[in-house]
Every structure is written in structure tokens, then in C-alpha cells.
Q: What sequence folds into this?
């Protein structure tokens, strides 16, 4: 979403906001743990992975324009951008891990979502956080607007963004059977995301030539 406040006929304050939130569920059936399986009437257990992702972007800046007395107007300006994204996964398994079955048949869920097969597992992931990402940058842009009605215009712009990205640590929680206590225990591990790399870059955006529909009040 993008909004403008026209301070004058040739200058506006501009803000933009983006919020994308997704939740995807992946199910898989595996052979149910049983001391006496019946090959003619097989039983199954359901494993599930839920992947939650979210991304937010907030921007603000100044826009100027030329040719304000005509339908076709040129625009240019600059913005400051702040962004945040996160990805978290949770897994549940139909076959319990206990003293009777300390390496039950379970699904190998892919990082980011999806089924990668199944097999006997003495340790299996139940939680996975891929680490938060923080972004800050500056963007300059140029474009055009064409007024198809007195207060309605179609516009397009192309920009160049310079930014820095900070990656948070990954976190993984696995469950495993402790033969000493005869109990299932959770083991937590934290690792640097991308080996702790901080990203810095610059590049052209809107190369696919998206068109904006603008309403002025």
C-alpha cells in the first residue's frame, strides 16, 4: 500500500507499507508403530509440519513532479526503507518416541517446508526458527503518471535501492530418547545464520514494470 500527501502541486510526502503473512501446513502418513503389524490391514500415523512466515516493510520519503499542468507528469524522489521478516516451523509426529519405540518411523521435513521422505529416527526436529532478518535502506526512483480522469492516474516507476541486511541466529529444538533416564528429552541448538554474515548491496527494482493505480482526494 502506498499513500501520498500533496504538500504543493509539485511536491508530496510519500509513505508505503507492506505486510505479507503466510501459514502453510504439510501432512504425511507413515507406518504406525506396532509390535504386531498386519500386512493386510496396515495402520498409519500422521505427521505434520506448520510453516509460518511474515514480512513487513515500511518506507517514507519525498516525491516531486514535473508537468503538473498536463495529464502526463514525470515523478522522482527518494525514500528510506525499513523491513523485517521471520520464518518459524513446528513439527508434530503421530508415532510417539518412548521406551518401546525410541527410534520410531517419522517424516523427514525439509527446511522451509515439504516432505523429504520418512524413516527410523532416534532424533527428530520439533521446532525450527530460521532467524529473523532486519533490513534498512535508501531508495531513489523516477517514473511517470498519466491522469485518465481528474483525480485518477496510472503510474509506473523504477528505482535503485542501497541497503544493509542483518541476519538473526537460527534455533532448532529436537527430541531424542535418553536411554539413561528412559525419557524423551528436548535438545536446543542455536547457530549463526549464513555463518553470521551481514549483507550489503544495491540493485535495480521494479524491473517487471508494475503499474500503479492512484486515487487523489
A:
Amino acid at each position: 500500500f502506498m499513500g501520498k500527501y500533496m504538500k504543493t502541486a509539485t511536491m508530496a510526502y510519500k509513505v508505503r507499507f507492506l505486510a505479507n503473512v503466510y501459514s502453510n501446513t504439510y501432512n504425511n502418513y507413515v507406518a504406525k508403530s506396532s509390535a504386531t503389524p498386519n500386512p493386510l490391514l496396515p495402520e498409519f500415523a500422521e505427521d505434520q509440519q506448520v510453516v509460518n512466515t511474515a514480512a513487513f516493510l515500511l518506507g517514507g520519503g519525498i516525491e516531486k513532479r514535473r508537468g503538473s499542468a498536463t495529464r502526463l507528469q514525470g515523478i522522482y524522489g527518494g525514500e528510506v526503507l525499513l523491513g523485517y521478516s521471520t520464518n518459524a516451523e513446528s513439527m508434530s509426529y503421530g508415532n510417539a518416541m518412548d521406551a518401546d519405540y525410541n527410534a520410531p518411523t517419522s517424516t523427514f521435513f525439509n527446511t522451509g517446508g515439504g516432505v523429504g521422505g520418512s524413516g527410523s529416527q532416534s532424533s527428530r526436529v520439533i521446532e525450527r526458527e530460521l532467524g529473523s532478518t532486519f533490513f534498512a535502506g535508501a531508495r531513489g526512483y523516477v517514473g511517470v503518471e498519466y491522469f485518465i480522469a481528474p483525480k485518477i492516474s496510472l503510474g509506473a516507476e523504477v528505482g535503485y535501492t542501497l541497503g544493509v541486511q542483518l541476519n538473526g541466529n537460527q534455533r532448532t529444538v529436537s527430541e531424542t530418547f535418553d536411554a539413561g533416564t528412559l525419557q524423551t528429552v528436548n535438545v536446543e541448538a542455536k547457530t549463526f545464520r549464513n555463518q553470521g554474515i551481514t549483507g550489503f548491496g544495491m540493485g535495480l527494482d521494479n524491473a517487471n514494470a508494475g503499474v500503479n493505480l492512484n486515487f487523489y482526494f
